[in-house]
C-alpha cells in the first residue's frame, strides 16, 4: 500500500511537471503583446522594454521557467501582470465559489442519478426505465451553456416578469453574508450542473445494480424472506456503488479545477471564469497557475479514487 | 538414420513469475528430427512440450542451448533474419478457435503467408488459396467466410492450409487434434498423413494422447517436467518400455479387447505433477515413481541407451524396466539405509 | 427511409443473412432498435440540411450573411420574429435565422466528423502501439495519456485558441489533439489482452512483422469498441465546438455556426425568443440524435454492456 502510494504520487508529480513545461512552452512560444497592452496605446518602445524587464519577460524562456519552477516548489505561483496580486491569492479567492458550486451540484446529481439508476435497475425494460434513460440522455445531450441560458430565461426572466423574483440573474453571494442569499444565487447553477452530470450516474448505477442483483448472495437474501426494499438498498446498493464512487471522484476533481461554462453563464467569479478572464487579458501567471491547480485537482482525485476503491473493495490489490 | 533436419541442443526455457521465481518449462532438452519422419512428443499437460515446440520454431527465445535447422543455428536469429526461414518451418496450433483471427475472412487468413512473403497477390493469391482449400478438403467457395462459420474440424483444416501454403520442410503440430471430437481427430490425422506423403514433409507431432502419437509417429519422445525421459522408435517404445513413467502412460491407454484390458496391469501414479518452479531434485520423476530409490533423488540420470538397447533408444533412468517386469507391485524405497 | 432501402439490399444478397458474421448480429439488433433508427433518420435529415444549405438560401432568397437592416429589423432595430419572409425570424443584424441554421449545420457536422476522425486515428494508433509494443513505448505513452487526461481540457482549449486566433483548423486540431487519450486508453486495454491470443502467435510464426500484426491482425479486433466510442464522441465534439463558439472562440464572424448564434442571442433573449430557441433547438436535436443513436449502437454491439 505504501509503495503503491509513493509510486502514484511520484507519477502525479511527473504528470504535473510535464503539464507545467507544456503550458509554459505553449504560451511563451506564442507571440505575446502583454507589455504593449500594459504600456497603453502611447507606450514608447522604452516603456515597453521597461515593462518587459519588470515582468521578467526579457529573459530567455528557459530562465523564466526555472524561475517559475523554483518559486512554484515553494508554493509561490507568481504575480498577475496587471495588479501584482499573488496568483495563489487569486486562486484562493475563486476557489470557495467553485467548490460551493461543485459540491452543491454533486449532492443533487448523486441523489438524482443514483435514485433514477436504482429505479431503472429494479424495473428493467419497464416504461419507467425507458423514461428515465431518455430523461438522462436528454439532459446529457444539452450543451451546458444552452441549459444555463434556458434556466435563466424561464426561472429568472419569466418568473421575475410574472412578479416572482426568486432567483437572481447571476453572481455570487459569499456564505459570510448569510446562507439564504448564498443558496439563492447557487441554486440555478447547481440544478444546471446536476442535470448535465446525472445521466452518467443513472447509467452507472443501473448497470452495476443490474449486475449485483443477479448475484447469488442477493438471491440468498431474498430467499431468507428479507423485504425487497431492504435487499435492494442494504445488500444491493452497497456493492453497486463502487463504480459510482470512482466516477464521482473523477468528476469532482475535474469540476474543482473550474466549471468554465456554467460559471460564465451565471457570472460566478470562480476558477473557471477567472481563467477565462485571464486568458482574454493574456495574464500568463494566472493562466498557468489555474491550469496547474486544475491538473493537480484531477491528479489528486485520481489517487484518492484508487485508495477509495481499495477500501471499498478489499479484493482489489494495489500494485 | 539419414539427414538431420532440426537439432535441439540442451535447450532450456525459463519464464519469470511475479514472485521472482522462474518456471523451468524446458529444462535441458536435446534431440534430433530426421528428414521425412514424424517425431512424436508426448507428455502430460504442463510438461513443457508446447514451450519446446515454440523454441523449435523460434517463437520463443531460448534461455540457453541452441536450435539448428539444416545446419544453421536459428535460436539466436533476430526476427528479421528468421523471416526467410519461416517459409521452411511452420506451426499448426492447438486451438482452432484461438489461432484463427475471428475478424478476418478465411481467404485472407490462408493467403497471409503469400502476402507476408510477397509471393503472390490479387487474383493469383486467390487462386493459390482456393487450391489450398481444395487440398485440405474445404469448399473453395467459402473463401469469403469468417472462421466462426466453420466447425472445429474445418477450422483446423484452415490452420493446416495456412501452414502448408509455402510448402515448408518442417511442420510442428502443437496438439493439432486435442481440441477436436474423436471422430474429427481421425480425419485431421489422415489429412496430415496424406499431405506428408504428397509433399515429403517432416512433422514434430505433439500431443498428450499417446494413442494418437503412436498412430502417427516413427519415433516418440516422452517428456516429464521439462525433460525427455525416454526416446525411441515407436515399436520399441511400446515393445521394450524402459522408463517407469512411459509404462505408466502406456497402462492408461484404452484397449480394444476387454479380456486383455482386465488382465493388464494398472499403474496409478501417486500425487500430483510437481511444480515446475521448484522441481524435485535428481530424477524429476522420483516423487511419483514406483521404483524410486535413494540415489534417484540425489542424482540426475542421463538420457542414454540402457541395458542392451540400440543407440536409437535412449532412457533417463537408473533402474530401467526389463521386458515383462511387473511394475504394479513395485514399492518406492527412499529411506537412507 | 434509408433503413428500408438497406433492408431490400439484404434480401437481394443472401450472403449478408448468414448470422454469425462479425457485426452482422450487431447491425441486425441495431435495425430492430426503434429509437436508434429514428435518431438515424434525424441525423440523415440534419446532414441533408447541411448539404442542401444553398437550397435554403435560394428558396428564401436570403444569403446567409446578408443583413436586411430594413425588412429584417423592427424600426427600433430589434430582430423580427418568424413571419412569411423570415420563417424562423431574424437575428440582431437582420439576417435570416433559418438559412444561418442550415449553414451552421455544416460547421457542426464538419468539426464533429473531422475532429472525431483525428481523435480516433491518433487514439487507435497510439493505443495499438502502447498495448502491442509494450516496454519503453508503453511507459512513455501511458504517461502521455495521463498528462492529457489530467489537463483541464476546456481551459487549455480556450487558451490555445486565444493564442492562435480562432479558425476551423485550430478548432478541429485542438479538439482532436486533446480527446485522443481516452480512445488510446480503451484500445490499449483491449490490445493488452489481444496480443496474448494464439492468432497473434500464428501470424508471427508465418513471419509477419510487428506493424503487420498490429494493423492486419490486432486492429480488426478493436474495431467494435472503437465504433461504439466514436458514435458517442461525435456529439461531445459538436458540443465542444459550440461551446468554444459560445465563448467567442469559434469561427470568425460572419460565418454562421450554432454556438456563435446562441452567444449573439444572449443580449436579446428577453425580447427575441426565436433568436435563441431555433439555433438552440438545432444544436440540441443534433446532439440528442447522435447520443440516442450511439446508445443504440452500444447496446447492439454489447447488449450486456450497461457500464460506461
Decide which structural class fits the backbone of chain A: mainly alpha
Number of strands of chain C: 0
Please give the largest β-sheet of chain A.
none
Mean pLDDT of chain A: 83
The chain pair forming the largest interface, with residue counts per chain, is: A-C, 54 and 43 residues
Structural class of chain C: mainly alpha
GO cellular component, one term (chain A): plasma membrane
Protein name (chain A): ABC transporter permease
Membrane topology (chain A): Multi-pass membrane protein
Family (chain A): Belongs to the binding-protein-dependent transport system permease family.
Properties at a glance:
heterotrimer; A: 319 residues; mainly alpha; MetI-like fold; 2 domains; 14 helices; B: 337 residues; alpha/beta; Rossmann fold; 7-stranded mixed β-sheet; 4-stranded antiparallel β-sheet; 11 helices; 11 strands; globular; transmembrane helix (chain A)
Topology:
The complex is a heterotrimer of chains A (319), B (337) and C (308).
Chain A: H1 2-29, H2 34-39, H3 45-55, H4 61-73, H5 87-122, H6 127-141, H7 144-161, H8 179-213, H9 216-223, H10 228-240, H11 242-256, H12 260-265, H13 271-280, H14 284-312
Chain B: E1 4-16, E2 22-34, E3 38-42, H1 49-56, E4 64-69, E5 72-73, H2 79-86, E6 89-92, H3 106-116, H4 122-135, H5 152-164, E7 170-174, H6 182-199, E8 202-207, H7 210-216, E9 219-224, E10 227-233, H8 234-239, H9 244-251, H10 258-263, H11 294-298, E11 314-315
Parallel strand pairs in B: 3-8, 3-9, 6-7, 7-8
Antiparallel strand pairs in B: 1-2, 1-4, 4-5, 9-10, 10-11
Helix pairs in contact in B: 3-4, 3-5, 4-5, 5-6
Chain C: H1 2-12, H2 24-32, H3 34-51, H4 53-60, H5 97-133, H6 135-150, H7 153-164, H8 168-194, H9 198-205, H10 210-246, H11 258-265, H12 273-301
Describe this protein's structure.
The complex is a heterotrimer of chains A (319), B (337) and C (308). By secondary structure, chain A is mainly α. Chain A folds into two domains: 74 residues, no CATH class; 230 residues, MetI-like fold. Chain A contains 14 helices and no strands. In chain A, helix 1 runs antiparallel to helix 14 and helix 6 crosses helix 8. Chain B has a domain of 221 residues: 3-Layer(aba) Sandwich (Rossmann fold), CATH 3.40.50. Chain B has eleven helices and eleven strands. A seven-stranded mixed beta sheet of chain B has the order 6-7-8-3-9-10-11, with helices on both faces. In chain B, strands 2-1-4-5 form a four-stranded antiparallel beta sheet. The longest helix of chain B is centred in the middle third of the chain and has 18 residues. Chain C has 308 residues and is an all-alpha fold. Chain C has a single domain, classed as Orthogonal Bundle (MetI-like fold), CATH 1.10.3720. Chain C has twelve helices and no strands. In chain C, helix 2 packs across helix 12. The longest helix of chain C is centred in the middle third of the chain and has 37 residues. Chain C starts with a helix and ends in a 7-residue tail after the last helix. The N terminus of chain C is likely disordered. Chains in contact: A-C, B-C. At the A-C interface, helix 1, helix 6, helix 7, helix 8 and helix 11 of A face helix 6, helix 7, helix 10, helix 11 and helix 12 of C. Chain C: Belongs to the binding-protein-dependent transport system permease family. Chain C: One of its GO terms (biological process) is transmembrane transport. Chain C: It is found in: Cell membrane.
Amino acid at each position: 500500500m505504501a509503495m503503491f502510494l509513493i509510486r502514484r504520487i511520484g507519477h502525479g508529480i511527473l504528470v504535473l511537471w510535464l503539464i507545467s513545461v507544456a503550458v509554459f512552452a505553449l504560451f511563451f512560444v506564442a507571440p505575446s503583446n502583454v507589455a504593449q497592452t500594459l504600456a497603453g496605446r502611447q507606450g514608447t518602445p522604452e516603456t515597453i522594454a521597461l515593462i518587459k524587464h519588470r515582468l521578467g519577460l526579457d529573459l530567455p524562456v528557459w530562465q523564466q521557467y526555472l524561475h517559475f519552477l523554483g518559486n512554484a516548489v515553494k508554493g509561490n505561483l507568481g504575480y498577475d501582470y496587471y495588479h501584482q496580486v499573488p496568483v495563489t491569492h487569486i486562486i484562493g479567492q475563486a476557489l470557495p465559489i467553485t467548490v460551493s458550486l461543485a459540491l452543491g451540484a454533486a449532492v443533487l446529481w448523486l441523489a438524482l442519478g443514483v435514485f433514477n439508476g436504482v429505479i431503472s435497475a429494479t424495473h428493467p425494460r419497464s416504461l419507467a426505465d425507458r423514461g428515465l434513460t431518455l430523461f438522462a440522455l436528454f439532459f446529457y445531450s444539452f450543451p451546458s451553456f444552452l441549459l444555463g441560458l434556458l434556466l435563466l430565461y424561464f426561472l429568472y426572466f419569466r418568473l421575475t416578469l410574472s412578479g416572482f423574483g426568486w432567483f437572481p440573474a447571476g453572481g455570487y453571494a459569499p456564505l459570510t453574508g448569510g446562507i439564504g442569499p448564498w443558496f439563492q444565487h447557487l441554486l440555478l447553477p447547481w440544478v444546471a450542473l446536476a442535470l448535465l452530470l446525472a445521466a452518467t450516474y443513472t447509467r452507472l448505477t443501473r448497470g452495476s445494480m443490474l449486475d449485483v442483483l443477479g448475484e447469488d448472495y442477493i438471491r440468498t437474501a431474498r430467499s431468507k424472506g428479507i423485504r425487497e426494499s431492504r435487499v435492494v438498498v442494504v445488500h444491493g446498493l452497497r456493492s453497486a456503488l463502487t463504480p459510482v464512487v470512482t466516477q464521482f471522484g473523477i468528476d469532482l476533481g475535474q469540476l474543482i479545477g473550474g466549471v468554465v461554462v456554467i460559471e460564465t453563464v451565471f457570472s460566478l467569479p470562480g476558477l473557471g471564469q477567472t481563467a477565462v478572464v485571464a486568458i482574454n487579458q493574456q495574464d500568463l501567471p494566472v493562466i498557468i497557475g489555474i491550469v496547474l491547480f486544475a491538473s493537480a485537482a484531477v491528479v489528486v482525485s485520481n489517487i484518492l479514487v484508487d485508495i477509495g476503491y481499495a477500501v471499498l473493495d478489499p479484493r482489489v490489490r494495489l500494485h | 538414420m539419414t539427414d538431420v533436419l532440426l537439432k535441439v541442443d540442451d535447450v532450456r526455457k525459463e519464464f519469470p513469475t511475479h514472485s521472482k521465481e522462474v518456471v523451468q518449462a524446458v529444462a535441458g532438452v536435446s534431440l534430433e528430427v530426421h528428414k521425412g519422419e514424424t517425431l512424436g512428443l508426448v507428455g502430460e499437460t504442463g510438461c513443457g512440450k508446447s514451450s519446446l515446440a515454440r523454441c523449435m520454431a523460434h517463437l520463443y527465445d531460448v534461455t540457453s542451448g541452441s536450435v539448428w535447422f539444416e545446419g544453421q543455428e536459428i535460436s539466436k536469429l533476430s526476427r528479421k533474419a528468421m523471416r526467410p526461414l519461416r517459409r521452411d518451418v511452420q506451426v499448426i496450433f492447438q486451438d482452432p478457435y484461438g489461432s484463427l483471427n475471428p475478424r478476418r475472412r478465411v481467404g485472407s487468413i490462408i493467403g497471409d503467408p503469400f502476402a507476408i512473403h510477397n509471393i503472390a497477390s490479387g487474383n493469383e493469391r486467390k487462386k493459390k488459396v482456393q487450391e489450398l482449400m481444395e487440398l485440405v478438403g474445404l469448399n473453395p467457395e467459402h473463401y469469403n467466410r469468417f472462421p466462426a462459420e466453420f466447425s472445429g474440424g474445418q477450422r483446423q483444416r484452415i490452420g493446416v492450409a495456412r501452414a502448408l501454403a509455402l510448402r515448408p520442410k518442417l511442420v510442428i503440430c502443437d496438439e493439432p487434434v486435442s481440441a477436436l471430437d474423436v471422430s474429427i481427430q481421425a480425419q485431421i490425422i489422415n489429412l496430415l498423413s496424406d499431405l506428408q506423403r504428397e509433399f515429403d514433409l517432416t512433422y514434430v507431432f505433439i500431443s498428450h494422447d499417446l494413442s494418437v502419437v503412436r498412430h502417427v509417429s516413427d519415433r516418440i519422445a516422452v517428456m516429464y517436467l521439462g525433460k525427455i525421459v525416454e526416446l525411441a522408435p515407436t515399436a520399441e517404445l511400446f515393445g521394450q518400455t524402459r522408463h517407469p513413467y512411459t509404462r505408466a502412460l502406456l497402462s492408461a491407454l484404452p484397449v480394444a479387447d476387454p479380456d486383455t484390458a482386465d488382465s493388464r496391469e494398472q499403474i496409478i501414479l501417486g500425487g500430483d505433477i510437481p511444480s515446475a518452479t521448484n522441481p524435485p531434485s535428481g530424477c524429476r520423476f522420483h516423487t511419483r515413481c514406483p521404483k524410486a530409490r535413494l540415489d534417484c533423488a540425489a542424482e540426475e540420470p542421463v538420457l542414454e541407451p540402457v541395458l542392451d538397447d540400440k543407440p536409437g533408444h535412449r532412457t533417463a533412468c537408473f533402474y530401467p524396466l526389463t521386458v515383462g517386469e511387473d511394475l504394479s507391485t513395485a514399492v518406492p524405497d527412499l529411506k537412507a539405509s | 427511409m434509408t433503413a428500408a432501402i438497406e433492408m431490400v439490399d439484404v434480401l437481394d444478397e443472401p450472403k449478408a443473412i448468414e448470422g454469425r458474421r462479425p457485426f452482422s448480429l450487431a447491425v441486425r439488433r441495431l435495425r430492430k432498435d426503434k429509437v436508434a433508427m429514428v435518431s438515424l433518420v434525424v441525423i440523415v435529415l440534419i446532414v441533408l440540411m447541411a448539404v442542401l444549405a444553398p437550397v435554403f438560401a435560394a428558396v428564401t432568397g436570403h444569403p446567409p450573411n446578408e443583413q436586411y437592416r430594413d425588412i429584417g429589423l423592427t424600426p427600433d432595430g430589434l430582430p423580427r420574429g418568424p413571419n412569411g419572409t423570415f420563417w424562423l425570424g431574424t437575428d440582431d443584424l437582420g439576417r435570416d435565422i433559418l438559412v444561418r441554421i442550415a449553414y451552421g449545420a455544416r460547421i457542426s457536422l464538419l468539426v464533429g466528423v473531422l475532429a472525431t476522425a483525428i481523435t480516433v486515428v491518433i487514439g487507435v494508433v497510439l493505443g495499438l502501439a502502447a498495448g502491442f509494443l509494450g516496454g519503453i513505448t508503453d511507459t512513455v505513452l501511458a504517461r502521455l495519456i495521463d498528462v492529457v487526461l489530467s489537463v483541464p481540457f476546456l481551459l487549455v482549449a480556450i487558451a490555445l485558441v486565444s493564442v492562435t486566433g480562432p479558425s476551423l483548423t485550430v478548432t478541429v486540431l485542438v479538439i482532436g489533439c486533446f480527446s485522443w487519450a481516452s480512445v488510446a486508453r480503451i484500445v490499449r486495454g483491449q490490445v493488452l489482452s489481444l496480443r496474448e491470443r494464439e492468432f497473434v502467435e500464428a501470424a508471427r510464426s508465418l513471419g509477419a512483422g510487428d506493424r503487420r500484426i498490429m494493423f492486419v491482425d490486432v486492429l480488426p479486433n478493436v474495431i467494435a469498441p472503437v465504433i461504439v466510442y466514436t458514435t458517442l464522441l461525435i456529439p461531445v465534439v459538436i458540443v465542444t465546438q459550440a461551446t468554444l463558439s459560445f465563448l467567442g472562440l469559434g469561427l470568425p464572424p460572419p460565418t454562421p455556426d450554432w454556438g456563435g448564434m446562441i452567444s449573439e442571442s444572449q443580449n436579446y433573449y428577453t425580447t427575441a425568443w426565436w433568436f435563441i430557441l431555433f439555433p438552440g433547438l438545432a444544436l440540441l436535436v443534433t446532439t440528442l440524435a447522435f447520443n440516442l443513436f450511439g446508445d443504440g449502437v452500444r447496446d447492439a454491439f454489447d447488449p450486456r454492456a450497461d457500464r460506461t
